[in-house]
Amino acid sequence: MAGWDWLKGFRDRNPSISLRTPESTSFARASAFNNQKIQKYFALLSVVLEKHHLKANDIWNVDGSGFSTVPSKNTKIFAIRGQKQVGVLTSAEKGHHFTVVCGMNAVGTYIPPAIIFPRKNMKNKLMDNGPIAAVGFSQENGWMNSEVFLKW
After folding, report:
1. Most buried in the list 63, 91, 92, 98, measured by CB within 10 Å?
2. Angstrom distance (rounded) from CA 152 to CA 149
């Protein structure tokens, strides 16, 4: 039976293998990513590219990620070995959600990112020390919507 000694030996013999936390993938996403559906996607893409005479600089990918002003988990820290308690102060508040949206085309041209803050009115001070050329928008819940997308 394989025990802790076997596991240690296995890891010593295979230094290229590491213990990692897997990323969660929904069943719907995993089942949609199959060879048949990918072939169908590229066949349809070819038809659209030819019909509209699109080139690589016309093909864009846009993605947004939501963030919170309050961390959802603690990061690891260095501490003296043997110290029984290592603590960190955390916030009891839920924080605010904001969104960062980036876009790049198939030849590598990018649009400066948009940062969407959960506010009624945008204050330019929020963009101080932000990414170069990034633009800020206010939207009541901090999410991208069609109005903000068109302005961006």
Report:
1. 98
2. 5
What whole-number distance in Å separates Cα of residue 18 and Cα of residue 146? Answer: 43
Strand partners, 60: 105
DSSP result, 54-103 = --GGG-EEEEEEEEESS-SSPPP----TT-S--------S---EEEEEEE
Going by C-alpha positions, the residue among 45, 48, 123, 137 that lies closest to residue 146 is 137
H or E stretch at 148? helix 146-151
pLDDT in tens, 16-68: 887 777 777 788 888 888 889 999 999 999 999 999 999 999 999 999 988 87
Average pLDDT score over residue span 63-89: 71
Across the strands, what pairs with 68?
Answer: 97
Q: How many CA atoms lie within 13 A of 143 on its CB side?
A: 3
